[in-house]
Amino acid sequence: xxxxxxxxxAPSSAPPPPPPYWLLAELTYRCPLHCAFCYNPLHYDxxxxxxxxxxxxxxxxxxxxxxxxxxxxSGGEPLVRDDLEELVAEARRLGFYSNLITSGVGxxxxxxxxxxxxxxxxxxxxxxxxxxxxxxFLSSTRTFELKRKVARLIKQYDYPMVxxxxxxxxxxxxxxxxxxxxxxxxxxxxxxxxxxxxGWAMKNRDQLMPTLQQVRDAERVVAQYRERIGARCKLLFVxxxxxxxxxxxxxxxxxxxxxxxxxxxxxxxxxxARDLPGLDLPNVRDASLAAIWRDSRAFNAYRGDDWMQEPCxxxxxxxxxLGGCRCQAFMLAGxxxxxxxxxxxxxxxxxxxxxxxxxxxxxSAGSAGFTPPAAVEQPILxxxxx
Length: 386
Ligand code: FES
Fold this sequence. Notes:
Elements: E1 22-26, H1 53-66, E2 70-74, H2 84-94, E3 97-102, H3 109-118, E4 122-127, H4 132-139, H5 144-156, E5 162-167, H6 175-184, E6 189-194, H7 199-203, H8 205-208, H9 212-229, E7 234-238, E8 258-261, E9 267-268, H10 289-295, H11 297-300, H12 318-321, H13 326-333, H14 349-362
The structure holds FE2/S2 (inorganic) cluster (FES).
């Protein structure tokens, strides 16, 4: 079949981009959980035409030929796909380092044994909290005990125990207990990533946004644990962007490292690129991955710094933060090419400060953990089923 290039950019004299390092294969948006901070698109249920096994195999081969070496199987819940083992085996044949990013739901002993046999390198298991009550509330499922069983299976099958817990105002006060739970389950690595506000988390931002005091208290607890446990478990604490005064170099630079493929074959320069206007995102069903990566308008839109406006254009820090996050700029400033409003130099920083001030007025979540803050009238919204 002829491959037609979608959204092709005008020929440019710019040097070719480096090869993508990391392929994120979002196998499906289907998921048994309904997390209040899910980063999947709000209208994910409109995506029904998932790539077939053969199409995914082709994507993996093309990505490897382009130079990608790290492969994440993600979603949704990738275990919903019953061809996962076949894709893992192909990834192993191609020489990828493969990582399964999972809620644990569906990871039975039969499947973990098959995934091991197929050559899966790494499993990252998510928890929502250290308590059953809050874990189950935030995911709108009864999955806490099941996740603990899966954690034991992961150890039993000799995988490095890598856990992830998304933090927000409800569970930040539990951070010490979350670390205790991770240690009890034998975690060697725990990612404590504060919610970033995209997708469903953006919908629930007033509900989830912590106070500055909560973030600082949690940071202190993590520092104390680091000192106490040393190398036994590596603790990564990611501060919410809103509490920084300089933005992150999102995706390590647009079109530099990260190549995502959505369940329907749409190629993504970042997880949330579907929500940005005017990108004309290409699809692996219509174009080769090499053409998408090198030539498509979407992947070239924010490469380099030609697209930057002031204050980024003349900023002496632009090589470090690359202007920050395009999705955050669009959501908070209404312009994807604006400086990330998280930056203190952005003329839109007041939007971030307004949200932080609201969170401070709303107070902390209290010891019960999930009592909605009094100042927030709207109930928390859970990702709904397709
Ligand atoms: Fe899209 Fe940051 S999440 S550029």
